[in-house]
Structures
1.
Amino acid sequence: MRTYDFAPLWRSSIGFDRLIDLLDETQQRSEDNYPPYNIERLGEDRYQISVALAGFNQDEISVTAEQNVLTVEGRKGDKDQHEYLYQGISARPFKRQFSLADYVQVKSAMVENGLLQIELVREIPEAMKPRRIAIGSGAPGGQITQKAA
């Protein structure tokens, strides 16, 4: 795999620290594909992450949202010791992290048929949404009148 030097971006960029850190982190991270997952776009501001967790109970899974990071962790409880002749279903502990954009909130998480489904919604505050500004026109006498939008 190629490695890229992001030092020139640091010298000429202001306010993009988080983006550059994410690029640098993904470059250095060793690729672990366990557990497999899908990320779906359900609508303009709705998303769903599906994580395949065969063999894990609901109480063995932890979902945490902190700042802009969603963390899914799983640890199998060693309640029953089994003697496997062949074990093809992995039950190893895992920690999978997802970076969330600003204003993306976790709405729900549920386990069904071996899939953990996490619903995400981007909710932009009203103050941050674009709004139409009425344009006034100069009227005789120095008063400004506004046209209805």
2.
Amino acid sequence: MIQNFKLFFVAFLLGFVWCVDAAAEVRLKDIINIEGVRGNDLVGYGLVVGLDGTGDGMRNSPYTEEALSSLLERLGINVQGEDFRPRNVAAVVVTGTLPAFARAGSQIDITVSAIGDAKNLLGGTLIMTPLHAGDGQVYAVAQGPVLASGFSAEGEGASVTFGAPTSGSIPQGARIEREIDFDFGSMETLQLALRSPDFTTATRVETAINNAFGGKPIATLKDPGTIELAMANTGLSPVHMIGRIENLSITPEQKARIVIDQKSGTVVLGADVKISKFAVTQGNLTITVRETPFVSQPNPFSRQGETIVLPDTTITVDQNPERRIAEVDENVSLSDLIEGLNALGVGPRELIDILKSVKAAGALHAELVLM
């Protein structure tokens, strides 16, 4: 990101160019991560009950029946040997994130996703489910009513589904039972990791931190993505140190980049993109192949003939005699480039092909990112 940075969001599907002015400076807390300060993924297997006949089919999901039988046995109910095949229970995987510095008793949001052939989780309730981290230990327990998005409806001859009713969430649905041992206050050095490593940005971060302490060598640049802080030179604890520097503002650098979403036809171009002189020529060529088979019948009262189907293929080639040619001068602005391509009637799919070709020709000086 540079001074007077402008981001041109090209939405050709809507037929306009949107120009966004972005702030030149950002806070350190928005571009760095701190060593050891991160979340931990949690996962668990559980059951959602109370569904309106939209749960797992027990014949297709035997693990659901087994888990339900085990649950009832722990509650003192023996269902072994019984013809027990309810349709209001679904097996689910529960996921969540244990935040940094989370304490026992606090609550976190979780996501619930069906793994069997359940049709939706609307109206269901998650039964007590332990959540494990990567070390196999239980760090939280989840339970509560599932908020499923979307809906599903069906009749005898048709059905419709909107969204993903087989997945839902439970806000504050898991309670933390175990804390992660991490003594942040005793760290003698801190490592700051840039989310987008860059030599220029890292140097600016180092300079900004040292200037905040009167020029003392507090921060040391280790590599394009790491800045080390020496706590002994500050007289502050790590907590106070981060609180003092995280709101410092700098101007980060960005690579020249063009992001293309091929599914929606959206193209985002940064203002640092440079273009050398090139020419574009494009012609409309349409080839239509039409099959019209016809039936050949034998003559009346013929005993030798038989009915056969014969192909009839028609190929039409339609080429627009007016070929569209555009020449782009060196150092052209992005707005001029977009206006020129729009004048040619270039659509989003054609724009993507043109940008790929210009990049291959060496005239587009930017990183091309395809999504």
3.
Amino acid sequence: MHVAQIWQHPVKSMVGRTVGTAEVVPTGLVGDRTWAVRDQVRGGIRGAKQLGGLMRLAAVPVDGPGGHVAITLPDGTTVTTVDPGASAAVSAAIDHEVTLEPLAPPEDLDHYRRGEMYHDDLMDDLRATFGREPDEPLPDLSQFPPEVLEFESPPGTYHDVHPLLLLSTSALAALAEALPDSDVDVRRFRPSLVVDTDGAPGHPERDWVGRSLRVGEVELDVVGGCPRCVMVTRAVGTDVPADRRILRHVVSELGQDLGVYATVARPGRIATGDPVTLGG
């Protein structure tokens, strides 16, 4: 196995970019999810679970990983986070008032606290967030770190649960085969790393849970599957249409999970093509 793609998403829920190399630190990839939007209507840092239009925007760094970013809007215009009008432009593009905000220190807990729900009933809010039909199960929320119940993301980060999300080429191929009329674009699934699994059938990353992975000089601990939410149904950029069939398949046929989460046991540098070795 080897690293096929490394993805950086400079702004939470916007389309990111692939890079040839990246530094891996305990909080994930350097330059990944260093900006996000705050909902000025209900409060809280938010992503495309609630503000789906964010996935039609794309972001790239303009002065190195972790610095300011340039955001391309659906009409093709670009704004940068140094532009005082950037938040207004993003708000207009997604038809919801937001402000762009960089990562705050982990001690600034108020920055990361959840805002108001989008529905009056908690179960309705969860079903909307995870995109579940009335007869479909919700994920087991007890598998998530307890801080994500109080905070939109673990303080000091803008990732949802864990620092890294791994997805195999086999999983993408299996999904495309199962859903021939759907656009199984990797950008829907927002991985940190895509691992080429040498044509193994199905979803081999499921067998990585509870084990370690050596990725170049980096060591990762695979901690669990990634329960998928409404984001995988959203339109992406200007060329990938919305499609609810993908989530229906993931829920009914894949036990709700696609890809696996990992934490960082040993930081370091990784590169496309690096070998990936499964440990104990």
